[in-house]
Amino acid sequence: MSSRPLKAAITMAIAGALSLTAAPAQAAPEPDPFVWVDLVPTYTNTAKNSYEPLAPPDGWARTDTCVPGMGYRYENAEYLADSVVDPAKPEVLLYEGGSDTSDRDLVAVGWAVENTGQAAPELFGKTFRSTEVSGYYTLHAWIYEDNPDGFFEAFNPDVKCPAAPTPATTTTTTTTTTVPDWVSSLDNLDGTA
Predict the structure, then answer these.
(1) How do residues 99-119 score in pLDDT, each as one tens digit?
(2) Cα gap 122→85, rounded to integer Å
């Protein structure tokens, strides 16, 4: 009997075992596959805003404060006021990038409903949280950037805020200069002294 099939089988078993150990120990669970179908209206209505300079001006207000793990927010006051949960109309757009708006890209969308004592709404089979923004139920979907903590998690550890610019420092140095004697004799060159 040839040893070739045995070597091939052992090699495959070792390769299979090694590939299993390369997987992360606690990978975030993927959302239900049917969620992607439900997210089609979200993608359709937000894809045009994927580059921040092209973000919609009408009805959207930009915040210039970057929240670590979330990014820069655009909020739509009209959508926030209607308390309707519509997959096609997220109330919040989240951008990541530099402090200059031309460097920002859309990473996630969010829905927010004012908490007036009602039960937390649900969308995509997920219950909104009341812990992120005081007085609101919220739900985020990281549809434009992978979130290792989970697709619908509030914060994404990969989203970073730009470092605060270091203030320019002005250093003043005082030097004492001794004027050589020959410089004072230059005053006498015009013949007036």
Answers:
(1) 777 788 999 999 999 999 999
(2) 8
pLDDT tens digit string along 124-147? 999 999 988 899 999 999 999 999
The torsion angles phi and psi of 163, rounded to 5 degrees, stand at -65, 145
How many C-beta neighbours within 10 Å does residue 147 have?
A: 22
- Select from 103, 95, 85 the least CA-distant residue to 46: 95
Query: What's the CA gap between 124 and 42, in Å, rounded?
Result: 12
